Each structure stands twice: as C-alpha cells, then as structure tokens.
Amino acid sequence: MAHDWPIRVYYEDTDLAGIVYYANYLKFIERGRSEWIRSLGIDQVALKEAAGIVFAVRRVEAEYLRPARFDDELVVRTSLEALSGARIVMEQRVLRGAEELFTARVTIVCLGEAGAPQRLPADIRLKLAPKLH
Fold it and tell me: Domain total for the chain?
C-alpha cells in the first residue's frame, strides 16, 4: 500500500532555468519517507531516545524523467519494496497528476548509537511488514 504526500514547488526549489533543481527531488522524497514513517505511528525521535536507533540512507538509485516547475502541485508516492533484518528498501515516485517526473529506489539502514547496523526492533517490523507490496 502506497503513501501519498502532497507538495508544492516553490521558487526556492527551482534553478536558473525555472525547473526544480535536481537535488531538491532528494529533499522531496525524504519528506515523503518521513511522513510515511510518521503515518505508521513510528516516532523517530522517541526511537532514538529510547533505543538509540536511527534510520540512515545507504543507497539511492534515481531517474529524472520530466521537469517540475514553479508552483506545480506534486505528490510523493512511497511504497515499501523490501524489508530485512536491518534494511528497508522503498520505491518512491514524484508525480504531477498521473505524470511520473522522478523515480527512486532508496535503501535505508537501521543504525545503533555507535553507527553500526542494528536489527530493526520487532515492533517496528510489525508496523512495516503489512506495507510490503
């Protein structure tokens, strides 16, 4: 099941050509992931404080398909592709209506306080597992 997060393109998101600067798509999908995690009832601040666990991006594979422009209304669509002991893989798309502008496959890892990989807590896995597509 996918999670949709609406966003609007602001002037600050664009480059000299008036299109969304390529690196800003990474910001857009980060917000989409954060809101998806929040919608599942996972509080990342509490997780860090209670268990010393954080999520970090390990890998991003991205494709820029079409440009978005100032004032466009977009949707960041996030879905869970894979889940393992310490790894979460998500597919993310940025859409303008039905038009696909950007796609990414993002690998997230769970890290402990020392920065080493750590298994996802069981309660987090239970919240994520039903979202696998």
Answer: 1
